[in-house]
């Protein structure tokens, strides 16, 4: 196998934030649930370590992973493996970032989201500046709610100029051209998020060179198509890997549509597909 990209989402569902616009159902994990998540992640990390071919991993937890020691450890360990080209995680950046000093920062990356009202602005900005000083690759984003526009403008002005600020269209929201222009002034790529992408029948890398894996090792083509391709740990998924069209009418999430081949976003984000960093 030339290269496999894996979107991993274990059972972790607890988060230290309670954003009113978040589409994910949050809960407070019990100690037993946390132990199960840790065991699942350690099993996955061990598989990646021994898989024997190039791989990249994006952790997309329902909750916040970096407040848990096992996620920080997994990112460090995977970044140090020569066959892991990139390991990244979606995070609210609420945890301290000193742990990144132990990682190979040429392979580690963070996809950070700023949630106004959930964290003091200066604390979030300070974490971003720390990452920049440490030489960690990261993107920063915000949900395009009207009440977030001033915060987004402030963040764009204060972030290091080389840090990409992305804007996610709010779930279920329709933007006028004037509203879209405000967000596009901050994120030139906002147009890709503004509207759902018709996808049925279009070629997509998911199910071929990109797969989604859950805590049990169940492999699907992506987070949004429920059909099972097999299991990671018994190797049964490998026989199912092949180019295939998207079966869904539309794709409206970046971690899905970035893999739609006709959109050409692998060129736009060359070298930074998983962490959502465009090529310079």
Write the layout of secondary structure elements.
Blueprint: E1 4-9, H1 31-50, E2 55-59, H2 69-79, E3 84-91, E4 108-113, H3 121-134, E5 137-143, H4 149-158, E6 165-168, H5 177-186, H6 190-194, E7 197-198, E8 203-204, E9 210-214, E10 218-222, E11 225-231, E12 244-245, E13 250-251, H7 254-257, H8 265-268
Parallel strand pairs: 1-2, 1-9, 2-3, 3-4, 4-5, 5-6
Antiparallel strand pairs: 7-13, 8-12, 9-10, 10-11
Helix pairs in contact: 1-2
Describe this structure in words.
It contains eight helices and 13 strands. The strands form three sheets. Strands 6-5-4-3-2-1-9-10-11 form a nine-stranded mixed beta sheet. The protein has a single domain, classed as Aldolase class I (TIM Barrel, Alpha-Beta Barrel). The longest helix is centred in the N-terminal third of the chain and has 20 residues, at 31-50. 38% of the residues are buried. 28% of the residues lie in helices and 22% in strands. Helix 1 packs parallel to helix 2. The chain is of the alpha/beta class and 280 residues long. InterPro entries: Aldolase_TIM (IPR013785), Radical_SAM_STM4011-like (IPR047771), rSAM_sf (IPR058240). It comes from Actinomadura rayongensis. This is Radical SAM protein.
Structure summarized in a few sentences:
This is Radical SAM protein. This protein has helices at 31-50, 69-79, 121-134, 149-158, 177-186, 190-194, 254-257, 265-268, and strands at 4-9, 55-59, 84-91, 108-113, 137-143, 165-168, 197-198, 203-204, 210-214, 218-222, 225-231, 244-245, 250-251. The chain is an alpha/beta fold.
